[in-house]
Structures are given as structure tokens and as C-alpha cells.
Amino acid sequence: MDGDVMATVKTMPASGPEAGLGARLQLIELTKVYGDVVAADRVTLDIAPGEFITLLGPSGSGKTTTLMMVAGFVIPTSGQILVNGEDIAFRPPHKRNIGMVFQNYALFPHMTVAENIAFPLKMRKWPRDRIEQAVREALQLVRLPGFEQRYPRQLSGGQQQRVALARALVFRPPVLLMDEPLGALDKKLREEMQLEIKHIQESLNITTIYVTHDQEEALTMSDRIAVMRDGRIEQIGTPRELYEQPASEFVASFIGESNFLMGRLERRDGHAYLVTEDGWRVAIPDAEDLPAGEQVTVALRPERIVLGERRGENHAEATIEEIIYVGEATKFRVRLLGDRLLTVKQPSRLETMRWQRGERVLLSWRAEDAVLLRGRH
């Protein structure tokens, strides 16, 4: 039942006049302070109806604290949480009409699947016939029809995750919150569930905040990603924007891999260059607002460096120090003159496999493949 999630997800029609209407969710200067620790620092987000936003960051970055403030389990020190313009920042959780999927699923072990899914509806005092219909629709939505009478202990991890998702969606909330819900699953199942959750979210058009520290998960699932650090949003944008145009060294290193080059900005013959301390000159995109002589840092993705060919404005000779085969790609750690190390990533092809450790090789890349970083380090 956990496999074959690449197929189109068939969903049942939603119940009630509010079905399929995601809410606009706004976080305005949302702050949480514990003593001397600022866990969330003026977090501001404007999330469109039906948008899937991921809060991405390392442990302690403030992403879960922010999510729990939206859920109502953490009271903000200051700030606003607006759902369709109405401030719910100090409303108790059960009065927010928000769906929540926890990291450990939080299923009631003594209740059947049907009873677990029906629980939020009973708390809302829905009539029995409407509850039964909603539970059937929710099980169909997560592809678990026929599992009504099973208990959580009789389910696999992926099935438990689906039941938790069904319980969060059964009352058709306008906002869904998910706190690292796939962390306990193995890699293959986690990747399958990423797509399934995204398909369900899109079919319901439900506004979603998803918390994870897994950058591949964020890139796969999100309409936009808010990268968090030290309680603040470092950068927000689409997966492509964050990968192709990271604003800081932190974002460039947290989303994907990057090589970093530092030096002073030089202009010559209408082109911009980064000149390192040892005099290495690298062609980079021009930043016309920065004066010549300014200290700058650029990020260069490993896959943008070409091995063994002369392409673009930049080229250098290096010695291969390490070769790491990772299936569809091969990583090379290479050393340039001046003890500078770079990582190169190439598709695993026959011509890639000919390189050996200790061999001298030509590297090249285009000026526009380097990204000038402007944010804090």
C-alpha cells in the first residue's frame, strides 16, 4: 500500500461550503523570546491561499517554534498571525481550525484508524452520518480504504503517516501545518510520500506550512522556501531562485553544495573580476552598484564546473585528489595552485570514469555561473 505513489492521486470531493478554499496566512513580526534566547525574531511571511511554504533550516533556527506559534501550542512574545485578515495569535489551538501533522504522528494507540480520523470531528460535534462520510472520504484521499478497523500498531510507518494526514485534513481546514512528518521513514518511502503529500495538497488547494531540515525535501515539495537561521528568515523564494541566486554563503551552503571564492572586485575592459589574495583573477558577473576594490564573495556550484574541456572565461589546471562515485554523478575534489580546493560534480559517464587520482586536469566555467553573495556570512 505504501508503493506506487507516482500514480495520479484520486481524491474525493470535499464536504461543506468551505472545501477547497485555502486561506491567506500572514505572519507579521512574529517573535518568541525565552529568557535571553530569541527563538523567533520578527518572522514575517505572506502566504497566498493554496500555497505550499517550507520553513527550512538547521536545528535551533526557529522553524519549529514559528510553526508551533501558528498552531497555538506556543504563545508569541509579540507579533500577529492573520488568517484571512483575522488575528488568531492568542486564540487557543482548538479554536483555530488548523490541521496539524506531528513528527511522531501522535495517533491514539487505543483507537482504530476510523476513530483516530473521526476524533477532531467528534470534538466539533458533527452528526454521526456526516462523520462517517467524512472519514470514508479522508481514507480514500490518503489511499487507505478498508483500514477503518485497524489499530496504529497494525500499520506500517507510511500507513501511520497517512492516517495522521487524514486526521489533519478530515475537517477540511483552510491551513495545514506539518512538522517534519517524514523524518521516521526510510529514504525511498520518504521520497514517495513527498510526492503524495504534494499531490493531495494541490488537489485540496490547502495553504500549507511544512517544516524540515532536509533541503532536497524542501526543493521537491515547495512553492516557496523560507530559509531560517538564528530565528530569522535569511532568504525566501522559489526552489529555483534559492538554488540559482542564493543571497548569502549560509543559503548557498545549506541548499545544495557550493565552492566559495573571496577577493576584491576589479573591472577591466568592461568586465568584472574577482582577484584573490594570491592574485588569481576570476571572471564574475558584474555588480554595478559595488565599487572597484570592494571585498566580495562568490558561490560556484560544483556541477557548473566542466572537467577536461575549455568552456567560458575561466579555466585553471588542478590535481585530482579524491573521486567519489554517488551513482548518477561523480564528485571530484581537486587542488589548484596555492592549495585551493574545489569540488566538481559531473554526470557519471564513460568519459568521466577515465579520470584517476593524482591526474592533472583542466577546469573551466563561465563567468555567469558564479553568483555574487550579498547577505551576511
UniProtKB/TrEMBL annotation:
Protein EC: 7.6.2.11
This protein's UniProt keywords: ATP-binding, Cell membrane, Membrane, Nucleotide-binding, Translocase, Transport
Keyword Transport found: yes
ABC transporter domain: residues covered: 25-255
Catalysed reactions, semicolon-separated: ATP + H2O + polyamine-[polyamine-binding protein]Side 1 = ADP + phosphate + polyamineSide 2 + [polyamine-binding protein]Side 1
GO biological-process terms attached to the record: quaternary ammonium group transport
GO MF term list: ABC-type polyamine transporter activity; ATP binding; ATP hydrolysis activity
GO cellular component terms given for this protein: ATP-binding cassette (ABC) transporter complex
Alphabetical list of InterPro entries matching this protein: AAA+_ATPase, ABC_SmlMolc_Importer, ABC_transporter-like_ATP-bd, ABC_transporter-like_CS, Mo/tungstate-bd_C_term_dom, NA-bd_OB-fold, P-loop_NTPase, PotA-like
Enzyme class of the recorded protein, top EC level: translocase
Subunit structure: The complex is composed of two ATP-binding proteins (PotA), two transmembrane proteins (PotB and PotC) and a solute-binding protein (PotD).
UniProt cross-references to NCBIfam families, sorted A to Z: potA
Function: Part of the ABC transporter complex PotABCD involved in spermidine/putrescine import. Responsible for energy coupling to the transport system.
The protein's name in its UniProt record: Spermidine/putrescine import ATP-binding protein PotA
Organism: Thermomicrobium roseum (strain ATCC 27502 / DSM 5159 / P-2)
